[in-house]
């Protein structure tokens, strides 16, 4: 049996004596006999060596693709070694939420730095210390926008399907009506939006980059939204944000997003990072933990969790969100990533993503029957039509160690990042030509 | 020791032109989006070299207290030791490098791991099914009530919109009810800090959707009427929700499923030893009885013959986040459970309860214990009397502990105890640490009577003194001002 209890059996007996009971059973005497179980029907414990072998065996049953052309909400980026090194420090890994500021200044300062970086990326006034992921961040943002008489939320059809599905759950449980704004040629349809914007609309969520990889005309959509006195929420890709006009400059009231590209591995979908930032006007509505700067009793700069009057442990049933634990360690990791990249590195990563995706698109479109499914510019993802069934192509690519794009309604959703070399792209194109070409 | 100089932010260490060399030159034709789509100015991220980063984070590390630094008896948070095996397993490329949307056939190990974790945790809790989609305990609570609501609605039972919550409950319970558009009915505890059966009987009715309960409760007491409590709710047509924050006390001893609970959330980052990461990521796995399984979230990992795949439950509530939850946290939790096994799980609970009782008995002659008697994994002190006699409050005692490298217990919770301090030592503390903590608490108690003034300013040895929280909230400064 494995164990992490320091007390040897003899020590345990001494402690029982000190407490004045004869056995462990006596400690649990208050639990009615009929509820106590004789034992659990799970395997006996194992040594760490055995467990390690067992889990390595499971890990070996997974296929880790050395080359990935798939994104769709989870992106394969370079993670600088310094990021893992500093984020892995035991104090950051094992501490609790920094309620005790005097012994948590390091963690609090790093979250404060993270909040500042998220504001720089999004052009917003303030950020919280993170929520669960991009989808739940989008859903929580809608909750922030509800007003008396405005109980309808709009979401662009071009958003990630899992974001739409998550938002639907949150909206249904809070009696918010969720309406999907249709797309035209892959982008949010401005005319359809105009028809939907009535006095009952609280907000619109648009995703920049949208699910098809396209760059939305967020400025124009948000101008329409504001003209209807509703609020604008932008779902932001944080790598693209190094290059593209910020959410704030596009007129967003709230910027949210999936922070996984900022130094987190693919990890079969989590843990990832929901980031969330907003304008000053919405400061007291943002959910979750927020770190603020203050002074200590002796006049030094110090950091604390602040604006706690919004939160569940104070407001209980009057709180608008129940969140307490968030993704703090992922936020710390994202802060380390953005620190390592710096403004130039982030811009370089974004430019590489853009250039490589456009090179891939151009090369793919040289093949007969392959064409971009949508007009207009994209960033590092795009959909092409395919003149053959995607399964055959994806199987062949998998044999070559390549995870191809994601099959979607109109064909394949491809993704390129700075990790894809020209050689890999050219090989991919050759394979597509072989399998699907005439 | 107090900081003698200003601790710089990374932005204040930034120097124009510094950076790390991370990415290669572009090997395809250069391309940029249209000028109108580009940002006007780059984000003001720090410009620092790798050595600057390394030293900055080391400075921050020294100013952060982890479980590795010392005793961490934070009540209701189960700050037990986090085995390094879990970290190593979660970092395996075979787990960390798997794309969530790669074909299920190429992610068999991940799916097997989730199914295996479901199996063992369902057995430990007495549930029939489990999902790992919720990212944290509160997220699990949210899902739990979604399941309860969906169950009633599927039966056409639409009037059930009230959730009964005892006054000792965690704040998340009532907040969760509100998120689900349900009303909270608070019921007061009885003199033993447990559910008052008469008050419960009076509260239930045709509008009762369910009850949310933590057992052992937030006073560290096991409610011996638990079977009767859940029966009252069931007879009124409601369902019972178990807040698993305190499961560490009873795992391997008794199971919520046998007590009449229909749905439960676990905090894998508490009972199952995964690290808290400074406030997350956790995992709020939700288990339920068969009657609620048809409503579980989409993308449920299942065994299909020899292979594993995903299945969408027929009446699914949908999803509460993208993908399948904080997967790597589940990897850590499973490595913990497999290491301990049936006997080890039980031994952990036994020693958690033993350590709590030992520590309590070392100080209960000086400090007043709310509802004294044999406790479960935690106990609550009331410092109301001490404050009245000396002016030293629960907060002052908590802050004084910082000078002894002890992380304070949970303060001012539960709300029903005046000047509360809630201690949860966990099973991974050795006796000498409990003796040290007891001795420190005795010294502080003595000082409260002999020389209380320094306690009001404690801590005296930390990098900063008590921060001004009122100033922080009144004039919020939430980002660095460049």
Write the layout of secondary structure elements.
The complex is a heterodimer of chains A (438) and B (482).
Chain A: H1 9-19, H2 24-27, H3 48-60, E1 67-68, H4 81-87, H5 90-94, H6 105-122, E2 126-127, H7 134-145, E3 152-156, H8 161-173, E4 177-181, E5 183-184, E6 187-188, H9 190-196, E7 201-208, H10 218-227, E8 231-236, E9 254-258, E10 274-278, E11 291-295, E12 301-305, H11 312-315, H12 328-364, E13 381-384, H13 390-399, E14 402-403, E15 406-408, E16 411-415, H14 422-436
Parallel strand pairs in A: 1-14, 3-4, 3-7, 7-8, 8-9
Antiparallel strand pairs in A: 2-10, 5-6, 9-10, 11-12, 13-16, 15-16
Helix pairs in contact in A: 4-12, 6-12, 7-8, 12-14, 13-14
Chain B: H1 10-13, H2 50-62, H3 84-90, H4 93-96, H5 108-125, E1 129-131, H6 137-154, E2 162-166, H7 172-179, E3 183-187, H8 197-203, E4 208-213, H9 226-235, E5 239-244, E6 263-266, E7 286-288, E8 300-304, E9 307-311, H10 327-363, E10 368-369, E11 379-382, H11 384-390, H12 394-402, E12 410-411, E13 420-423, H13 431-450, H14 453-456, H15 469-474
Parallel strand pairs in B: 2-3, 2-4, 4-5, 5-6
Antiparallel strand pairs in B: 1-7, 6-7, 8-9, 10-11, 11-13, 12-13
Helix pairs in contact in B: 3-10, 5-10, 6-7, 10-13
Nutshell version of this structure?
The complex is a heterodimer of chains A (438) and B (482). Chain A has 438 residues and is α/β, with parallel strands linked by helices.
